[in-house]
């Protein structure tokens, strides 16, 4: 008389094709590029299951692991939901157990057979999921590295283009600034010369900073200790014409005498970028445009600055990448403004983040104060 394991082996050998066909009817998909291999893999697994009934050891475990890795690699290439694969394995388990339970076995014999079947399938699933996760992580990392390299190449190209542009632009700009200074000295009563001079200086400063960031130069800007509240008021005053054009209401709630250490001009650029972006958003169909700027100093000597506007909500997928280079919602934007801001804040041991809902969009700067 055959032993219980011998009976199970004899049954699987005799009914292998029947079990495979029943499984194929449940799971086979013509959209799967590896559908022609699916039946072969299931057949291979049944053969390994038969070997396990004979003698389950390290060799059969290794063979199951190899099959699991092959299948996991195919699932990565197929780009199908991995949950479908798990469901297919569950279907195969159910079919195998169903047919094995139809044999005339005692309860104890059933438990012994089912324990071995489940052990082999669980091992196959574990090895498949582990290897699939490993391959998927490597793939995602590779994609990130590719994107990072693409951004680096674009930044390098942009740096070269900007360098050429700056040299061509600065000559006439310097001449204009010189003639404005002459006019200020010779005819100081002419209106708006101060404003024109300030605008030209800011333009020159922005071009220089754009060049420095795009070329990723290592030269550190000279640091000073300055009052952040005073700088905020200076920037608001400078942007007054733009604020007036949008008819925005700018409110401030600033803590007294908060000082930070860094390049004042770089922090001016951060404030200009964020507030100008807000004004740009508020210029579109907003009957009551508002910008609010607040600062607080925490006990841990940390400055928290919130710059909020009631413009249109920024979608989650955009917020996720909003500080990456070349990400922009503007038709003619470079996508470098917020990237530059984040680099400036982070090199001063701070952080810059963004949140947005239907009421407010807020940029939050956290940075050590002195």
SSE layout and pairing:
Layout lengths: L3 H24 L7 H21 L2 H21 L3 H20 L5 H80 L6 H22 L9 E4 H11 L1 H7 L2 E5 L5 E4 L1 H19 L7 E8 L4 E8 L6 H6 L15 H11 L3 E6 L4 E8 L2
Parallel strand pairs: 2-4
Antiparallel strand pairs: 1-3, 4-5, 5-7, 6-7
Helix pairs in contact: 1-2, 1-4, 2-3, 3-5, 4-5, 5-6, 9-11
Keywords: ATP-binding, Kinase, Nucleotide-binding, Phosphoprotein, Transferase, Two-component regulatory system
EC number: 2.7.13.3
GO molecular function, one term: kinase activity
Cα-based radius of gyration, to the nearest Å = 34 Å
Total E-strand runs: 7
What helical percentage do the residues reach?
55-70%
Strand content: 5-15%
State the secondary-structure class. Answer: alpha+beta
Instruction: Please give the domain count.
Output: 3
Q: How many angstroms does the end-to-end distance come to?
A: 89 Å
Please state how the strands of the largest beta sheet are arranged side by side: 2-4-5-7-6
How does CATH name the architecture of the largest domain?
2-Layer Sandwich
The CATH fourth-level homologous superfamily of the largest domain: Histidine kinase-like ATPase, C-terminal domain
Compressed to H and E, one letter per element, the order equals HHHHHHEHHEEHEEHHEE
Q: What is the count of helical runs?
A: 11
Mean pLDDT: 81
Give start-end ranges of low-pLDDT stretches: none
**Biggest pleated sheet:** 5 strands, mixed
What is the fold named in CATH at topology level of the largest domain? Heat Shock Protein 90
Can you identify the CATH class of the largest domain?
Alpha Beta
């Amino acid at each position: 008389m055959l032993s219980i394991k011998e009976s199970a082996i004899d049954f699987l050998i005799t009914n292998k094709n029947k079990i495979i066909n029943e499984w194929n009817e449940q799971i086979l998909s013509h959209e799967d590029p590896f559908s022609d291999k699916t039946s072969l893999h299931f057949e291979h697994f049944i053969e390994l299951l038969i070997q396990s009934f004979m003698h389950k050891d390290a060799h059969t475990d290794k063979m199951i692991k190899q099959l699991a890795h092959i299948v996991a690699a195919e699932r990565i290439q197929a780009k199908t939901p991995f949950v479908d694969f798990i469901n297919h394995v569950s279907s195969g388990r159910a079919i195998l157990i169903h047919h094995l339970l139809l044999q005339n076995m005692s309860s104890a014999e059933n438990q012994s057979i089912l324990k071995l079947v489940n052990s082999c399938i669980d091992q196959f699933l574990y090895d498949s999921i582990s290897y699939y996760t490993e391959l998927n992580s490597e793939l995602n990392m590779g994609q990130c590295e590719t994107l990072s390299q693409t951004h680096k190449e674009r930044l390098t190209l942009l740096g070269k283009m900007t360098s050429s542009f700056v040299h061509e632009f600065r000559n006439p700009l310097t001449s204009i600034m010189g003639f404005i200074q002459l006019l200020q000295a010779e005819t100081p009563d002419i209106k708006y010369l101060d404003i024109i001079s300030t605008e030209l200086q800011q333009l020159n400063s922005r071009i220089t900073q754009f060049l420095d960031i795009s070329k990723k130069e290592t030269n550190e800007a000279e640091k000073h200790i300055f009052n952040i509240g005073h700088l905020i008021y200076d920037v608001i005053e400078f942007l007054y014409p733009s604020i007036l054009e949008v008819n925005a209401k700018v409110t401030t709630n600033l803590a007294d005498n908060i000082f930070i250490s860094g390049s004042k001009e770089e922090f001016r650029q951060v404030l200009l970028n964020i507030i100008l972006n807000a004004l740009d958003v508020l210029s579109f169909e907003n009957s009551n445009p508002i910008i609010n700027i607040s600062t607080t100093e925490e006990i841990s000597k940390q400055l928290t600055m919130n710059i909020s506007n009631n413009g249109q909500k920024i979608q989650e997928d955009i917020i996720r990448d909003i500080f990456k280079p070349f990400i922009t919602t503007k038709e003619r934007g470079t996508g470098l403004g917020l990237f530059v801001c984040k680099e400036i804040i982070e090199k001063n041991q701070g952080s810059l983040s963004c949140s947005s809902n239907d009421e407010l969009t807020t940029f939050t700067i956290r940075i050590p104060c002195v």
